[in-house]
């Protein structure tokens, strides 16, 4: 639970934002691990992206007042669905969550401590069931002061920012949203760019979740074509300029 930290005025204090789609197989375990970390006045906002399977039924079986289910009338894609969950949230601290991982006990306290001194926090993950992580290097606390190196790493593709391991304070929502219309994947890199450009992101080395890899993961697990790599780099360049523009306007 989240006891042991100073109380905050916002109610709920924590909003967990999740996008669900075809998640019936794993989402029950994930929701259970999240609810164990939340206090009685916190919330889990789940936007289901018109799942054709039993995902919604599994969510409803929890019958927990902290779970807020919103259903898309038609499929919008996971970027817009995550954005909708963030905009529907009410908490002072926004945690992002995938539908098929498992939270590590103590995750909330660990990340809240980081959010006392920074507007955004990014953490690592371990693999559910053990086994090696993907090749990309894990985050290090020394990266807190290396904003330019972090941005360069995002552009090149070797900074391990995953939305499932991130949280931010509500004050960042006007910067993060609306997510630029040309972003159809990698919204987590957009968030990480904003946190680094704002010079307000901390990196926690301890894993905060156990990540499950399977055939339906939205994050690509293999190598991309040269064309896709170039397109992604160009998009990230546009996002860097957009983040700078939005933060100058604040």
Protein described:
This protein has a single domain, classed as Alpha-Beta Complex (Spore Coat Polysaccharide Biosynthesis Protein SpsA, Chain A). The chain has 8 helices and 8 strands, in the order E-H-E-H-E-H-E-E-H-E-H-E-H-H-E-H. An 8-stranded mixed beta sheet has the order 3-2-1-4-7-6-8-5.
Using the 3D structure, state the CATH architecture. Alpha-Beta Complex
Per DSSP, the total helix count is 8
CATH class: Alpha Beta
Class of secondary structure makeup: alpha/beta
Strand residues, percent: 15-25%
Total E-strand runs = 8
- What kind of sheet is the major sheet? 8 strands, mixed
Overall tally of structural domains: 1
CATH homologous superfamily designation: Spore Coat Polysaccharide Biosynthesis Protein SpsA, Chain A
> Termini, distance in Å?
34 Å
Question: What characteristics describe this protein?
Answer:
about 250 residues, alpha/beta, Spore Coat Polysaccharide Biosynthesis Protein SpsA, Chain A, eight-stranded mixed sheet, 8 helices, 8 strands, disordered N terminus
Write the layout of secondary structure elements.
Elements: E1 14-20, H1 27-35, E2 43-48, H2 55-60, E3 67-71, H3 78-88, E4 93-97, E5 102-103, H4 107-115, E6 120-127, H5 147-156, E7 166-169, H6 173-176, H7 187-197, E8 201-211, H8 226-249
Parallel strand pairs: 1-2, 1-4, 2-3, 6-8
Antiparallel strand pairs: 4-7, 5-8, 6-7
């Amino acid at each position: 639970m989240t006891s042991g930290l100073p109380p905050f005025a916002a109610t709920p204090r924590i909003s967990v934002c999740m996008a669900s789609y075809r998640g019936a197989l794993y989402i029950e375990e994930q929701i259970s691990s999240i609810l164990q970390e939340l206090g009685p006045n916190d919330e889990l906002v789940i936007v289901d992206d018109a799942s054709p399977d039993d995902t919604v039924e599994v969510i409803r079986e929890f019958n927990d007042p902290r779970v807020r289910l919103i259903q898309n009338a038609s499929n919008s894609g996971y970027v817009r669905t995550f954005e909708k969950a963030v905009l529907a949230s009410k908490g002072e601290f926004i945690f992002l969550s995938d539908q098929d991982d498992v939270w590590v006990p103590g995750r909330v306290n660990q990340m809240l401590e980081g959010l006392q001194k920074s507007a955004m926090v990014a953490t690592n993950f371990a693999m559910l069931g053990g086994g090696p992580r993907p090749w990309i290097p894990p985050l290090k606390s020394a990266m807190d002061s290396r904003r330019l190196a972090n941005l360069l790493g995002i552009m090149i593709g070797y900074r391990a920012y995953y939305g499932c391991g991130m949280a931010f304070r509500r004050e960042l929502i006007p910067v993060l949203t609306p997510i630029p219309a040309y972003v159809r994947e990698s919204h987590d890199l957009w968030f990480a760019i904003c946190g680094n450009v704002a010079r307000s992101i901390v990196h926690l080395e301890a894993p905060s979740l156990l990540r499950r890899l399977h055939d339906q993961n939205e994050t690509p697990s293999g190598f991309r074509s040269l064309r896709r790599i170039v397109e992604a780099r160009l998009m990230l360049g546009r996002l860097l300029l957009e983040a700078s523009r939005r933060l100058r306007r604040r």
